[in-house]
Amino acid sequence: MSAVFNFTFVPWFRSVAPYIHLHRGKTFVVAIAGEAIAAGKLQTIAQDIALIQSMGVKIVLVHGFRPQVNEQLLAKGHTPQYSHGMRITDSVALDCAQEAAGQLRYEIEAAFSQGLPNTPMAGSTVRIISGNFLTARPVGIVDGVNFKHSGLVRKVDTAGILRSLDFGAMVLLSPFGFSPTGEAFNLTMEEVATSVAIELQADKLLFLTEVPGIRAQPDAPEGDDNPIDTEMPLAVAEKLLSELPPPLLPTDAGFYLQHCVKACKAGVERSHILPFAVDGALLLEVYVHDGIGTMVIDEKLESLREATADDVGGILQLIEPFEKDGTLVKRDRTEIERDADHYTIVEHDGVIFACAALYPYAEARTGEMAALTVSPQSQGQGDGEKILRRIEQRARAMGLGSIFVLTTRTMHWFLKRGFQPVDPDWLPEARKRKYNWDRKSQVLVKKLV
Length: 449
Fold this sequence. Notes:
Helix content is 37%, strand content 24%. By secondary structure, the chain is an alpha/beta fold. The chain is elongated, with a radius of gyration of 27 Å. The model has no long low-confidence stretch (mean pLDDT 90).
């Protein structure tokens, strides 16, 4: 069991390390729906947030309390009232909201204060600061509906929040704000989180919600042929939002999406919709390549481009495991640094997931595609095909009539993509002199038309 654990843990931890480095020092606004707390998920969510903070991320935590307020209202014989997707907060609802906010703040602070041995919180010290960081204004009367004590964010005390974060504390915000005259207003968790993320220009806004994300076909039933759209460009999200009916319930496709779009348009780099029902959803979204929810971004995070000298370290990290198991011929590190511009890479969120090099033999009007490598994390997602197409484009631009590869293990992959086997004697003279006859690599050629 120990050997199996070591075998799986070491490569997993190495794959996570780039994201740990990437997010250190960044600011995340995490919004937890009240339904997550009502479902008993607070303890595990707190542990995951504490773990993320321990890796150098600055956290602003915003909690919701929709079901808790409704529960208190019903206990008092009062029916919850909504319009335009917002609560109508009369004096009874305001009292219930204040009571619910106080109780939840107590529960959240208690959850982050645990440090039992053999738990993820063991040895951790999480300081939580909360206060009057929000100034609010009334919603007023909309379409003839008086929202009474329901409010909107007027101003965020950005300087105060940043000072608290720089102190090393986590900032906890309830969906409550106060007017300059001291009047209390009930706010929505979604609007508070979005406003704070925009004012802080946070690196991420994460909604931990009762929905799994946005499906590829939002109006179709869930299923294997209708998966979660894990990466949605802002333009696509805006178009989808315009086609959906106005969202009124948290389970409506556009309910959280509208806030993600607003945040991204105002400068927040990435906004996420995650399911609290999945254990470790925050960790999976932040530290795994594709995540599990929907991420709205201003542009595609993945880029296909030619490498520079700054990418050499990432290329070495990618190809090293394949050199060790014999899939790739070990290459001299100095040679890779010298030939960095020969490489094409697929980069996603600052991490290199695929690469290949093109070495032209102009006298023979051909070129070698070498070191084609795709990370195990992204195999089967088309990165290999993307690299191949770009290498072919580069070869045509050089005036080459074909490209060739030498392989011992992936022959069938190339055959399916138009390569044909040839005798090693076909190789250009300069390449033939370097051919390793002991390795017995297959030589495959693809003509460029």
